[in-house]
């Protein structure tokens, strides 16, 4: 808390603000020394020479910024932007983020998208996160069904991410912090050897779990069958991949696309789509798409002290 801006100010007031052990002397409190940090609020405190108590009006040791999340959001929380809007001063700011019980904080999209970002702070700043709810990456979208004439069906997307920090951070986790589930890979289609036709369409992969739910991959159409769209994800549940698509009639009987992969649950990868089976003279099989990777629950772990670990799901780096 900063010192007052007017009225009587004592050496004890200055010592209390800057946590100085007695005995006290004004010469201990030059700006840029061991006690008084360089900051806009401390601009009137000299770095040497004559110094007086009136130089310390409004001076401060640390600035505290409090921010509470009391309702669900998947817009992504930028802690530096919050600090900037609430009196941020480089190197002496403590940010306290509290997520209330039962509240979901999600990333805006899958892949390299974060629910909470703590970046752009100066050395000496400290971020404190108390999570009583859920910090979740978005679920990865499922891969679409395969089409002629790629060698492999599309892959599922990686799950979104929980927290990214480049500053000293203390995390007290009484809830869940998780990366989003990866999307399932698309099923492999039966494709023309000549590179002109899709024999039987393939199903799309299921979506991964996350606060912003992933979408199932679309099925594709061929001359003998159409694939099914993969299932959507939920907060904690993943969508199922679409089933096998068969080609019927004549010499094509028995050919089928591969089933698409399922989406991953929170912090888990999606599964791979299956290869197609071909029983026709000029068709060739296509590999199923790869499942999307599990999202990271945290990137920047070397900057973090875990006061309480809670439930953590997914990758960490």
Provide a descriptive summary of the structure in words.
The structure is a single chain. This protein is mainly beta and 317 residues long. Among the domains are: 46 residues, no CATH class; 129 residues, no CATH class. Helices cover 4% and strands 23% of the residues. The chain has 2 helices and 19 strands. The strands form 5 sheets. It has a 5-stranded parallel sheet with strand order 1-3-6-9-17. Strands 2-5-8-16-19 form a 5-stranded parallel sheet. A 4-stranded parallel sheet has the order 4-7-10-18, with no helix packed on it. The protein is rod-shaped. The chain starts with 10 loop residues before the first helix and ends with a strand.
Give the structure's gist in a few sentences:
The protein is mainly β. It is 4% helix and 23% strand.
Furnish the topology, listing elements before pairings.
Layout: H1 11-17, E1 63-69, E2 77-78, H2 79-84, E3 93-99, E4 104-106, E5 114-118, E6 126-131, E7 134-136, E8 161-165, E9 168-173, E10 176-178, E11 190-192, E12 198-200, E13 221-222, E14 225-226, E15 283-285, E16 296-299, E17 304-308, E18 311-313, E19 315-316
Parallel strand pairs: 1-3, 2-5, 3-6, 4-7, 5-8, 6-9, 7-10, 8-16, 9-17, 10-18, 16-19
Antiparallel strand pairs: 11-12, 11-15, 13-14
């Amino acid at each position: 808390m900063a010192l007052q801006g007017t009225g009587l100010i004592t050496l004890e007031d200055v010592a209390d603000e800057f946590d100085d052990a007695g005995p006290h002397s004004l010469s201990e409190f030059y700006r840029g020394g061991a006690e008084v940090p360089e900051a806009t609020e401390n601009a009137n405190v000299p770095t040497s020479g004559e110094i007086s108590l009136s130089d310390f009006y409004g001076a401060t040791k640390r600035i505290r910024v409090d921010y509470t999340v009391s309702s669900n959001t998947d817009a992504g929380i930028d802690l530096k932007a919050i600090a900037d809007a609430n009196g941020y001063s480089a190197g002496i700011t403590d940010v306290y983020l509290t997520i209330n019980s039962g509240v979901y904080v999600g990333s805006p999209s899958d892949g390299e998208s974060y629910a909470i970002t703590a970046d752009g702070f100066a050395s000496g700043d400290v971020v404190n996160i108390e999570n009583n709810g859920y910090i979740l990456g978005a679920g990865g979208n499922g891969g679409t069904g395969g089409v002629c004439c790629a060698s492999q069906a599309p892959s599922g997307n990686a799950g979104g991410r929980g927290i990214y920090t480049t500053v000293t951070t203390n995390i007290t986790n009484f809830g869940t912090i998780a990366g989003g589930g990866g999307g399932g890979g698309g099923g492999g289609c039966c494709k023309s050897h000549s590179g002109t036709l899709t024999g039987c369409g393939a199903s799309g992969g299921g979506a991964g779990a996350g606060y912003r739910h992933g979408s199932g991959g679309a099925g594709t159409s061929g001359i003998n069958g159409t694939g099914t769209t993969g299932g959507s994800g939920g907060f904690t549940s993943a969508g199922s991949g679409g089933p096998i698509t068969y080609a019927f009639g004549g010499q094509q009987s028995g050919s089928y696309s591969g089933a698409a992969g399922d989406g991953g649950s929170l912090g888990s990868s999606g599964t791979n789509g299956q290869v197609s089976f071909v029983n026709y003279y000029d068709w060739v099989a296509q590999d199923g798409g790869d499942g999307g990777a599990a999202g990271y629950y945290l990137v920047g772990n070397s900057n973090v002290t875990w006061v309480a670990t809670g439930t953590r799901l997914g990758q960490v780096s």
